[in-house]
């Protein structure tokens, strides 16, 4: 079956001279408005280069976009409940923990803080649910009035730590609006939904700060040793400093937190003589970010403290692939959400997700994947892109792990096949103009939820981001260099 295709918002190709001129302007617009990243090859803190972006917004059906927006608070609440269900997390992660040291280290911290007693019952969730349109209509003609090749979408994953692009999401709409105006198509901008992700996400941090309730307190952003995605992170800081000049923000690595913070007798995390109200992690989601025991000790210290964490360790555990797979198993959603209409809606966004545990159902999943490896993605308990296996690699890995408990650290997921769209990807250092390429997109919907186990203070959808990659690339992380910034154009 050939992959379905959506029409681009204006006919392509564009005339050569016009294209070259508009790209030149757009690159300068990008640099001057923070559509940027640090250069990985020639890193310096003195310059920013453009982040790759798609010249024109990519089509996305409005009904499906609206559905995703509406469902976000339901997903937020589900994650909140999962994160607070100790028994469920224990049971779900037990096999993976045996073979995955990183998840086991996170888990150990969780056990320690639970044993000591939770000092801060409030958690701050800044989530991002990532979805792709599914070009194969899953319904029969009778069931589906539309029966279009994009009448449904599936969730790729939900992120509970370092959910980025609060700035790069909205600014992508702005740069593409500028480009549309330059091309004489300013009238199309009305079809690009507004996006207030940056202020929405930052409101999560400031509301958590106010709940902490200590006027002298500060906020810590936990950052990598080297931040390539600096624009996205800094704009969060700039936004908060503009709206709330009373709030001091510091960017600190886990190693600096180890050296520069202490816990006082009230279990407050103290930095520079002041209590820390909120710790917002933009690092700490992958093993390389914990090169020594100091980083793990720093993480434990933060978790022990009264600071409101985004995320708390149990929220990070709730965001693992293993949890996502378990939620899709029969009866599990019902346990958290009852048998409601909302439960049905959430079930509908799950694609096939299979455990590879060392048991009968795991055996069946292995057999199924070996028979048709192309249909699946094999995922370890990792974040940040570039960790999954596809196609022939799935078969290879499963043959290697078939008789090893190691496979419990992975889940098997049905591959989503999004529709294609033609477009231009502008990349730093690449020849101008770029060719017209076949692209596919992944939409991320942001959610903010603040609460304790029993009381939710706020729960809302706060904006979106769109990432687009070449149709034949397996993954599309922008920071990883494969994806490009984009924004949705409503069909
Ligand atoms: P990570 O937490 O590392 O971002 P993801 O589950 O989001 O892991 O996978 C990374 C990328 O791989 C996604 O952004 C998407 O491009 C691709 N991908 C993941 N799962 C699927 C799937 N089921 N079908 C198609 N592509 C997928
Ligand atoms: Mg992720
Ligand atoms: Mg992802």
TrEMBL record:
Glutathione synthase substrate-binding domain boundaries: 217-318
Binding site for ATP: 321, 379-388, 390, 413-416, 442, 469, 475
Annotated binding of substrate, by residue: 233, 467
CC cofactor: Mg(2+)
Superkingdom of source: Eukaryota
Cofactor: how and how many bound: Binds 1 Mg(2+) ion per subunit.
Cellular-component GO terms for this entry: cytosol
Known EC number: 6.3.2.3
Substrates-to-products reaction catalysed: gamma-L-glutamyl-(2S)-2-aminobutanoate + glycine + ATP = ophthalmate + ADP + phosphate + H(+); gamma-L-glutamyl-L-cysteine + glycine + ATP = glutathione + ADP + phosphate + H(+)
Functional note: Catalyzes the production of glutathione from gamma-glutamylcysteine and glycine in an ATP-dependent manner. Glutathione (gamma-glutamylcysteinylglycine, GSH) is the most abundant intracellular thiol in living aerobic cells and is required for numerous processes including the protection of cells against oxidative damage, amino acid transport, the detoxification of foreign compounds, the maintenance of protein sulfhydryl groups in a reduced state and acts as a cofactor for a number of enzymes. Participates in ophthalmate biosynthesis in hepatocytes.
NCBIfam families tied to this protein: glut_syn_euk (TIGR01986)
Summary of subunit composition and partner proteins: Homodimer.
Protein family: Belongs to the eukaryotic GSH synthase family.
Stated name of the protein: Glutathione synthetase
């Amino acid at each position: 079956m050939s992959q379905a295709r959506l029409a681009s918002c204006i006919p392509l190709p564009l005339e050569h001279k016009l294209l070259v001129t508009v790209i030149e302007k757009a690159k300068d617009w990008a640099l001057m408005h923070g559509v940027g990243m640090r250069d990985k090859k020639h890193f310096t803190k003195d310059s920013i280069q453009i982040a790759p972006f798609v010249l024109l917004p990519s089509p996305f059906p409005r009904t499906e976009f609206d559905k995703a927006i509406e469902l976000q608070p339901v997903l937020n609440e589900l994650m909140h409940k999962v994160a607070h269900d100790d028994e469920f997390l224990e049971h779900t992660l037990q096999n993976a923990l045996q073979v995955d040291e990183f998840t086991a280290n996170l888990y150990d911290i969780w056990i320690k803080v639970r044993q000591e007693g939770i000092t801060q019952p409030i958690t701050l969730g800044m989530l991002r649910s990532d979805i792709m349109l599914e070009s194969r209509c899953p319904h029969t003609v009778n069931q589906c009035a539309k029966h279009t090749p994009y009448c449904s979408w599936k969730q790729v994953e939900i992120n509970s730590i370092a959910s980025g692009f609060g700035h790069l999401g909205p600014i992508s709409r702005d740069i593409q609006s500028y480009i549309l105006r330059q091309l004489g198509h300013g009238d199309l901008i009305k079809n690009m939904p507004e996006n207030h992700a940056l202020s929405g996400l930052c409101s999560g941090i400031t509301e958590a700060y106010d709940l902490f309730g200590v006027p002298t307190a500060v906020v810590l952003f936990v950052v990598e040793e080297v931040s390539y995605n600096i624009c996205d992170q800094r704009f969060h800081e700039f936004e908060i400093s503009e709206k709330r000049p009373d709030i001091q923000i510091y960017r600190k690595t886990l190693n600096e937190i180890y050296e520069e913070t202490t816990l006082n007798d009230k279990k407050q995390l103290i930095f520079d003589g002041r209590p820390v109200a909120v710790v917002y992690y933009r690092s700490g989601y992958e093993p390389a970010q914990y090169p020594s025991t100091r980083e793990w000790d720093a993480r434990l210290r933060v978790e022990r403290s009264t600071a409101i964490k985004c995320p708390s360790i149990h929220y990070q555990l709730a965001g693992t692939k293993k949890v996502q797979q378990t939620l899709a198993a029969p009866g599990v959603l019902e346990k958290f959400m009852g048998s409601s209409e909302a439960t049905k809606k959430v079930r509908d966004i799950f694609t096939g997700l299979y455990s590879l545990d060392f048991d009968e159902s795991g055996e069946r999943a292995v057999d199924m994947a070996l028979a048709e490896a192309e249909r699946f993605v094999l995922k370890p308990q990792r974040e940040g892109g570039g960790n999954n296996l596809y196609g022939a690699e799935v078969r290879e890995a499963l043959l290697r792990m078939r008789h090893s408990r190691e496979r419990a650290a992975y889940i098997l997921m049905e591959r989503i096949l999004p529709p294609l769209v033609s477009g231009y990807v502008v990349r730093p250092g690449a020849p101008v103009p770029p060719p017209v390429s076949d692209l596919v997109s992944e939409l991320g919907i942001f959610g903010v939820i603040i609460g304790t186990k029993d009381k939710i203070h706020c729960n809302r959808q706060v904006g979106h981001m769109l990432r687009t990659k070449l149709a034949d690339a397996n993954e599309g992380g922008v920071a990883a260099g494969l994806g490009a910034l984009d924004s949705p154009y409503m069909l």
